[in-house]
């Protein structure tokens, strides 16, 4: 009995397990639809292709290798052969300088006072800009060539056509070679130069010639500035002198016309006479009052005092009439005095202007006697002990990298066009 029950339970469990196995991966549905279809018997197996073909040398590979040799290896080999066998050694001479400007001013003390302060305050930065352009100009190349014969100096390596001068006699070809052999660096008002030549003495001579010609140019600019300062001061002095002459001539003409040396002095002298007479009149009046108070009316001293007072008053009136009298030209004396005072003021102003202009001219001339701008060489032309150029290793690295980049770009373009077919 018990054996029958156990067999029934096992049959139930086996049925449940079969139903569970038929469900899908999500626990629902039938598992049979997720199972692979059964291969039919005697059906052929599918063929599996290999992951990569066996490598074979193609024609394009040969072309790429040949192009690498032609574009990269061959130029590098030729360049290395030329640099180490044909290229001549070059010596470098270095030079560094800047333009210095004196900004201090000079003063002149005239008649106990400072009349002017004159100084040249031109900016040295603009002079450095001019000098930087001058070093790269035809003018400097022509000057240095006239002194040293640059064509001969840069043609001393006939077996080196790349770095040697191979141009004609034109100045344009020489300027092109100048740009290759002379490098100019400009930074913050300072100029640095590097001069190359096949001989150390030649490089030093070219650098020294550049420095000398630059000094001459700065001196010429300095002379122009000094001449301008002197010219302006001279013009002001001449104008002041002409004004002073005119003022003095007008005073002389006035004196001759009115026949008076100094009308103001004449008026002052007459005013002094009137003041003296008024003082005498006051004393006579006091004396007359005392006599009238102490003496008899018939005293002759009283009559004399009255006569004296009357005469003083008449004299005062006569002196006062002179102030409003006419001069030899028929003009009133007061008007004449006013004209003379105006002329005297113009003359005094002209004299002070002339004094200031003369002091300014003397100061400008004193300033012109000293050099206010000059070249200060912080690196004088050097004399090389050994050849630094051409930089063979550096040139080879640059050339190799450049050729390799060109070849890689060409290969990428070739494959991109091939893939688009």
UniProtKB/TrEMBL annotation:
Q: Classify the source by domain of life.
A: Bacteria
Region (Disordered): which ranges?
1-52
An example of a GO molecular function for this protein is: protein tyrosine kinase activity
Question: Compositional bias (Polar residues) at which positions?
Answer: 1-12
* Sorted UniProt keywords: Coiled coil, Membrane, Plasmid, Sugar transport, Transmembrane, Transmembrane helix, Transport
Keyword Transmembrane helix listed? yes
**Extent of Basic and acidic residues compositional bias:** 15-33
Where, by residue number, does the polypeptide cross the bilayer? 62-84, 395-417
User: Which InterPro entries does the record cross-reference, listed alphabetically?
Assistant: Bact_polysacc_biosynth/exp
Provide the coiled-coil residue spans: 227-322
Give any Gene Ontology cellular component.
plasma membrane
Tell me which PANTHER family the record gives: FERRIC ENTEROBACTIN TRANSPORT PROTEIN FEPE, TYROSINE-PROTEIN KINASE
The protein, known as: Capsular polysaccharide transport system permease protein
The species is Paracoccus saliphilus
């Amino acid at each position: 009995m018990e054996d029958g029950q156990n067999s029934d339970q096992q049959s139930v469990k086996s049925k449940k397990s079969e139903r569970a196995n038929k469900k899908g991966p999500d626990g629902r549905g039938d598992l049979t639809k997720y199972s692979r279809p059964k291969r039919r018997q005697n059906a052929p197996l599918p063929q599996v292709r290999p992951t990569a073909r066996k490598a074979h040398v193609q024609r394009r590979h040969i072309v790429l290798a040949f192009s690498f040799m032609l574009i990269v290896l061959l130029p590098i080999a030729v360049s290395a052969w030329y640099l180490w066998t044909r290229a001549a050694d070059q010596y470098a001479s270095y030079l560094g300088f800047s333009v210095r400007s004196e900004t201090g001013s000079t003063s002149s003390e005239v008649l106990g006072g400072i009349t002017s302060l004159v100084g040249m305050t031109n900016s040295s930065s603009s002079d450095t800009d001019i000098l930087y352009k001058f070093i790269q100009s035809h003018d400097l190349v022509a000057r240095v060539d006239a002194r040293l014969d640059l064509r001969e100096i840069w043609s001393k390596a006939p077996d080196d056509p790349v770095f040697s001068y191979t141009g004609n006699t034109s100045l344009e070809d020489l300027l092109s070679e100048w740009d290759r052999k002379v490098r100019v660096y400009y930074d913050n008002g300072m100029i640095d130069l590097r001069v190359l030549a096949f001989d150390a003495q030649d490089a030093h001579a070219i650098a020294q010639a550049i420095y000398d010609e630059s000094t001459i140019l700065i001196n010429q600019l300095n002379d122009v500035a000094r001449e301008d300062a002197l010219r302006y001061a001279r013009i002001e002095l001449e104008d002041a002198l002409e004004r002073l002459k005119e003022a003095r001539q007008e005073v002389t003409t006035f004196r001759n016309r009115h026949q008076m040396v100094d009308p103001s002095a004449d008026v002052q002298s007459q005013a002094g006479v009137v003041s003296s007479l008024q003082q005498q009149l006051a004393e006579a009046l006091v004396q007359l009052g005392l006599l009238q108070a102490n003496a008899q009316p018939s005293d002759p001293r009283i009559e004399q005092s009255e006569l004296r007072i009357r005469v003083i008053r008449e004299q005062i009136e006569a002196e006062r009439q002179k102030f409003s009298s006419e001069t030899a030209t028929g003009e009133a004396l007061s008007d004449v005095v006013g004209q003379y005072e105006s002329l005297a003021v113009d003359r005094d102003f002209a004299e002070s202007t002339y004094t200031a202009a003369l002091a300014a001219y003397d100061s400008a001339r004193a300033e012109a006697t000293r050099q206010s701008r000059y070249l200060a060489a912080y690196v004088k032309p050097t004399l090389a002990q050994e050849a630094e150029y051409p930089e063979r290793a550096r040139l080879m690295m640059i050339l190799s990298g450049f050729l390799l980049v060109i070849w890689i770009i060409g290969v990428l373009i070739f494959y991109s066009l091939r893939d688009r077919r």
